[in-house]
Structure formats: C-alpha cells, structure tokens
Amino acid sequence: MTAKAKKKQTSRASFAIATLQHYFKEQAKIIYPPRDQHNSREGELHPSSYPFCALHHGWNIVNKIERKPMDYFGFYYTGLGTIAHELMQRQFGRGKKILGDWKCLECGHKKKLSYYARCKKCGSEHVEYEEIGIKFGKYTHGHIDGVVNIDGKLFVIDYKTSSVKNNNKHRDTGSQYPYKHNVAQIKSYIVYLEEQYGLEVHGWILVYVSRDHNINDFVCVGDIVDEDEKKKLRKKYKLYDKTFGVAEKLKKDKTPEKKMEYLKYLIKHKPCESLKDYKKEFWEGYEIHCPLAESGVCFNKEKLKLTLEKKILGSKTNSIL
After folding, report:
1. How far apart are CA 191 and CA 237, in angstroms?
2. In sequence order, which residues have a C-beta less than 8 Å from that of residue 39 and are 6 or more positions away?
3. Which residue of 1, 39, 72, 108 could cross-link 28, Cys pair, CB 3.0 to 4.6 Å?
4. pTM for this one?
C-alpha cells in the first residue's frame, strides 16, 4: 500500500471514530425514561426529597409539573451509587456491628433488624443484607442503609458516593461535608427508627466514598442528636406527612372549591414566612427552586390568594406568575 493510500485509510478511520464519538455524546443527551420511572414513587413522601414544602408540591400538581426524567449521566451516577451501596452493605453488614434486615438465599427466611448470623431456619451462611424499611404516618416511606453499634450506642449510617477530589477538599478544609440535603435526610431516619422500631439512636454518620477509588478513599462525618432536637424534628415530620397527604388530594378531587380548600390549608402550614426563610431552608445548600417564593408571591397573602384563585377557579383576576 502506498503512503498516499495509507494516509487516506487513516483519514477514513479518524472520520469514523470522530463520527462515533459525536454520536455517543449526542445520544447521551436524549432522555429515554423507563416506563415506571414516575409511577414507582407515586403517592409516597421520601426523605431523599427533604426539606419539603407541601404548598410547592401542590403547586406542581395543579400545574402538572412532573419530576424531570434522568438522562444517561443521571442513570450512570445513580447506577454506580446503587452498586456501591449493595457492595458496602453486604461486606460491612457481615461484621456483626451493623443492624439490618436479612434474607436467606437458600430458604428465603427473613429476619428483621438484626446483626449478621447464619439462617436460624436452615443453617445456611448465605444470608443477604437488605436495607431497613421505614414507614411513618400514612405517606412517608424510605430505606435506611444501616444502623451501627459503637460502644453500645446506635448511630444511623448512610453511604454517599462522591469523588477523590471532593474527599481531598474536605481533608484540606474540613468544610466540604456534610451536604445539607444529606443531613436533612439522615436526621429523619433517627426519628423514624425510634418511632417504628423503638430504638434509641444516638446520632448519625454519613460515609462519603469516592466513586473513583471506592473504599480506599472515604470520609466519615457525623453528629449527635439530642432529645430536644428529636422532639422538634418529630413534629416537623408529622406535619410533612400530613400536608403531603393534603397536597396529593389535588390529584383526585376535581372540584375547584375543594382544591382551593386544600391549598388554603397548605398556605396555613407552609414552612416559609419570608424570602429569608426560603433562602435558608430551601435554597442555601439545597437549590430547591420554587416560583412562588422566588417571585415573592408566597410572602404576600393577597397576591398568593389571587394567583391560586386564577389557577384553580379561573378567576378574571390577573395571576402574578
């Protein structure tokens, strides 16, 4: 083959490679949501969505604003996180220091909230770790990675995948972790464990494990939660559950007057009284967008009422949003 022919062949190969690379990049941007992506969590409140505002949830319902489906990169990162969780739970749970639910792979026998042991029914050591399921009130559901026993005191633990870069940043500054939304989630588990299982949980520990180096690179952060804080949190989560249920009624009840009745209840129990509240409780560290709050409508009773009436009752009054 002549040098000219080789050059031409190399050029064709380069073109094919560049075309494929472009195809992959463009294809990754396209969203192909699974059939059950929205329906699998329908009608349930999950701690991973905390902090929670039922009025915001109700506004999304009446405007038919659904959770945006994940793209390729979203599934990639959540998929890695799922695999990491499964490996860590299986490996660390067998050390007889972490409470969890267990299922025998031989006979199917299940044992809840216990340390690792051979199956009492068939004696098999092939017992699989399962996350602890929680249910609180009528609508709140979730799964807890585990509960670790440290010197006789129980701490709820949650594994979070991160990166070597972020872990190193925390080691250097001490300010990278914990993320506020992670704390909002894991603190709720303390209350739910105590309510559902009667445990006394001392505090929480978040374990940030790097995706690119796994358990060879991890950072643990945590804190104690005293009884006064638990009492306040318990009251907050009960309100979360109740107001979520009221907001969900907006999906089923078609009567405009009834819908306004539900929305008035949600207004009465909304968590933000000012823009300052919103920024502190929902934006700083969370970046939860709420058009009602960001426009200032949520903090003006008359404007809020007019906006909701326009949406629900078809009032001739101009909407603020």
Report:
1. 9
2. none
3. 72
4. 0.87
